[in-house]
Amino acid sequence: MRALTFASLVILAACGGDKDEDSGDTGVTTDGPELLSVMRDCPETAGTICPFAGAGYNGFNGDDVDRLDAWFSFPMGITFAEGRPPVMADWNNHKLREILPTPADGFRTIMGTDFLGDGDPDLLDSTPAGAPGTSVNLNHPTQHIWLPDGTFLSASWHTHKLRTWDPETGLVHVYVGGAPGFSGIEFEDPADTAQLNQPKEVILDPSDDNFLYILDMRNERVRRLDRTTWTLDTMAGNGDKCLAANGDAMGDDGDALLACFGFPKNDNPEPGGALAMTADGRTLYIADSENHYIRQLDMETGVLSVFAGAAGESGDVDGAVGDARFYYPVDLELDEAGGVMYVADANNHKIRAIDMATGTVSTFAGTGEPSCELPRGLLVPELCDNTHSAGDGGPATEATLYRPFAVTLDLEGNVIISDTYNHRVRIVHQ
Amino acid sequence: MNHRILALALVAAACGGAEGEPKEKVPACEQPGNICTWSGVPETAMFAGEGEHRLDAPMYLPQGVAFGSDGTPYFPDFNNHRIREVKEDGIVYTVSGTGMLGDGPIGSSGCFAPTPCDSLNSAWNHPTDLVVDPSDPNILWVSAWHNSRIIRLDISTNTLEWVAGTGGRQFGGDGGPASEAILDLPSSLAFDDRTGELYFTDQANHIIRRLNADGSIETIAGQPRAPGFSGDGGPAIDAHFHGHTDQKADPGSKMVIHDGILYMADTVNGVIRALDLDAGTISTVAGKYTSAGEMELMDEDGYPYMVDAGSVPGYSGDGGPALEAVFNTPRDVAISPDGSTMYIADTKNSCIRSVDMASGIIDTFAGKCGEPGFAGDKGPASEALVNEPFGVSVDPDGHVYIADSLNQVIRRVVVE
Fold first, then answer.
1. Cis omega before residue B114 (within 30°)?
2. What is the spatial distance between Cα B252 and Cα A191, in angstroms, rounded to a whole number?
3. Does the beta-carbon distance from A382 to B100 stay under 8 Å?
4. Measuring CA to CA, which of A184, A303, B286, B308 is 20 to 30 A from B34?
């Protein structure tokens, strides 16, 4: 039916019909590509993977669209909070979007415009007065959190800034960061003038929400913001980028400030690195994406050590944390009880789960294959019919993902997967 | 897709004529002065339609289109981080770009000669312009804007080579090898067909640079990192231009070369400048600069400093001398093949202006200035609406292509 409608419109174009014959006011002769749908009656049984949001197309078709018909462009971090709609970083659409409670209601953009950039035209967002979020240009936001005072904080990755949004006023302003850089001093760097370089992730210390940890990607450091003294210091990383596969010494089992990381650092890298912290604030986990392993920082001793995987050894192996292998681990999510850590294992096209009590790594979702045979190498990865099914309605371990860049838990403990290269978000019910 | 075959069959039947039989009237989209969507799907920002007809192939924030000597169109698909080609019968294919942003293949240590990269597995970051090498139709030169590089793409071998720019964003390297030079948002490039030399605008450095035959790079107009408006009537190397800078920049400062003259949209100054490549002199050929005073920018350490704020934007002057006209953030310029008409992407006015080069009189060519929107396909271009066109170009026959950026399409106006 759709094809027939499409064909009749083509006839009008090809025959050069008069304006009278044109469709609508615009004279548009096509309704675009034929679209496939995702599953809509997916059983919400434990272990089953289902569509959560997105139709599996790379693009932007507005906010006023059913949740499962929406187009995203490389969706990344999603955050759930009590009493608020979840917010998604629609990365290559340069927007932060609330996913509204009623699926038919679609979305609400809280930050971002129809172009990319850094702030609003009048630079009002560079002052605390702020600017309306929908006048503020973003460039590839990766992740975000809610702060204790009810405001929201975005890692506005490509603009080297953290930005806050106040849901009461809708206003946004720059919280930390300016031009890209590292402002030289390691300790007590005043936050007003501190510089970041592609901050990929922020987390709050669950035991003391005065402290905010920043994965300062291209500075190859994990930094801490003391929100009382309004100063930044460095928790881990000497600033060098190290790759164990090249023979670099990573500095494990020593002072974290002398250790180095493999966060992406070339001129136009993709997002990498991730953080998670135990509820008692004693251990900070750091995904070292390009070294394919997860490290742990003892917050009392300042010693960095290996938690899971092995430095420089990519692979897809389940088992004890020391035997397990990952391939570009790019997001971590630790459940509140500290029982399970979920890992977005991007290049294995999997979500892995680490049982924190036994130290065992297993595959939680994904077969390890991407969602389709690539028709022309990596050239057109999105054009893949299987994107729209990809195992929905079946066990998560039999489904296919395509470079998932984020994993999170909703308020019921269901696992939410940003299936980034499939341009949609999926849910595994617990 | 099957529906296209079906459509073609139906077209043949419905139009009631055997192939080659003359039609009764000229199709609306072929009538001079009419505007039509030429590629993309209106108001549909998307990556799709690979291997489909161009009207079924959405794009994302188009910036312009360029033509090979055989007429093959190519365009940078800006926010899809791809370079795409329109093949015979209007079928669109990606010729480079994975869709993810990046700088060559993932994990690559670089794409400098003599070790070019696999272009099919290479990523880009917001390419803004390209030009087909006049001496080899398989070579595309691309301004990889957010990569801050000039990249040479060989579509016969599916390889690409980083030619100019380290990837850093600063000014440096004049007189040395282009590969060691530092650029800051190169937005546009063009060949001087008479000499085969490649010129490009280094937007955030506020200059125009040239790649020399010996592989070196040179600034030929403008003062590096010094925004301003000055120098008309004098040597171009002493002049000041003003492009958008920093992370907040939008693509602009685009240019074209026609018959030894380089025309550049001097975006923040709200004018079109002309650089005589033989004499090395600069002039303004359209637009009236009225100083907007100074504005505050942040330096690299995050401290504010004051710079010239460019020209006061506006819309005026149609029917009068182009030098008295006012634009709002013009980003691109094109010249008809016969040199008779200049087209200006008057971006923030959401229209295309045209200047009759003989009389110097300006008019609105497409869109209604000050009224962004999408409307008017198959009708006169001057009654249509466009939405922030970031680019304008002409094909070898003189037809005008408008990168109707916020409408997510390229539109065409047939010119007699």
1. yes
2. 33
3. no
4. B286
Residue at A37: amino acid letter = S
pLDDT in tens, A115-149: 999 999 888 998 888 999 999 999 999 999 999 99
Q: Which residue of A has its CA nearest to B405?
A: A115
- Split at pLDDT 50, 70, 90, the class of A373 is low
Mean pLDDT of chain B: 92
Token code pair at residue B394: 């002409």
B306 touches chain A (CB under 8 A): no
Q: Is A385 in contact with A422 (CB distance < 8 Å)? A: no
Q: How far apart are CA A412 and CA A416, in angstroms?
A: 11
CB burial of residue B302 (10 Å; 0-12, 13-18, 19+): middle
Nearest to B48 among A33, A74, A377 (CB): A33
User: A37-51, A71-85, A377-391: which range is least confident on average?
Assistant: A377-391
Integer Cα distance of B174 and B225 in angstroms: 14
Give the residue among A344, A196, A197 at the shortest CA–CA distance from A275: A344
User: B278 vs chain A: nearest CA distance in angstroms?
Assistant: 36
The verdict on a CB contact (< 8 Å) between B46 and A378 is: no
Burial B81-101 (b: 16+ CB within 10 A, else e): bbbbbbeeeebbbbbbbbbbb
Collect all residues of chain B within an 8 Å Cβ-Cβ radius of residue A142.
none
Which residue in chain B has the smallest CA separation from A140? B101
pLDDT for A349: 96
Euclidean distance between CA atoms A172 and B387, whole angstroms? 26
